[in-house]
Amino acid sequence: MKPFQHDWVVLFDHDGTVVDSETIALESAWRLTKEVAREFPGAQHYELDEFVKTFAGKPYREILKKIYADSLTSLNERDIDRLVAEEEKRAIERLTVEAKATQGTPEVLSYLRDDGFKYALVSNSSLQRLSACLTSAALTDYFPSEQIFSAHDSLPVPRPKPLPDIYLYAVKCLDAEVSDCVAIEDSLSGVRAAVAAGIGYIIGYVGGTHISEDERSSRADALQSAGAQQVIERMYDLIGLLSATPV
């Protein structure tokens, strides 16, 4: 692979990539879902590990629709809006105190900033959730507001990954070309969004705690099948890829 140039733009996913937030948020969502199932019987049941594996990278609205897809019970949009708001509140409460950077991420961000790379955060999460996570993970200095893009809040209408909209919007705002961008993604929906947007190079990341060591090989295969050209387990490895030298 040829070395990346400094005019390439590195676009990071957030949850499970820059911040190790997926396990925290998904456990919170799972607990809420168990409560929802008592209020609205008929939801498909998931154990916690299966819930995390199945729904990593997916918005809670999509999760609710999935678990009630084959149920005789249907949730109306008002119920879904209420539950999505409750999930957001609970997740932020926990992430505000529990979210940590994924291993190696502060060092990678320091390298990018000091070496003159342009980079940004491109996420499905709300700006409020992103702010809570970045503050808890001590990463706010690396991401000024003009480098944060939320599919929930930055677009006229929320259009989450795997739709490409947030990538296309970020690239436009950064005055870049999609072919000169690198995306770092931990989820299938994220990789698919990057592919749909035409991002020039896509790197899968399987180092988050929501992906067990036993799962990493199969997840890497799945990310590559979805369109990732390369997969890394350590965030540090990104420095080697960007500099075309071993880490």
UniProtKB/TrEMBL annotation:
Under InterPro entries, the record lists: Beta-PGM-like, HAD-like_sf, HAD-SF_hydro_IA, HAD_sf, PGP-like_dom2
Q: A Pfam family matched by this chain, by name?
A: Hydrolase
Keyword entries, A-Z: Magnesium, Metal-binding
**Which cofactors, if any, are listed as required?**
Mg(2+)
- Highest taxon of source: Bacteria
Family, per the entry? Answer: Belongs to the HAD-like hydrolase superfamily. CbbY/CbbZ/Gph/YieH family.
Record-given protein name = HAD family phosphatase
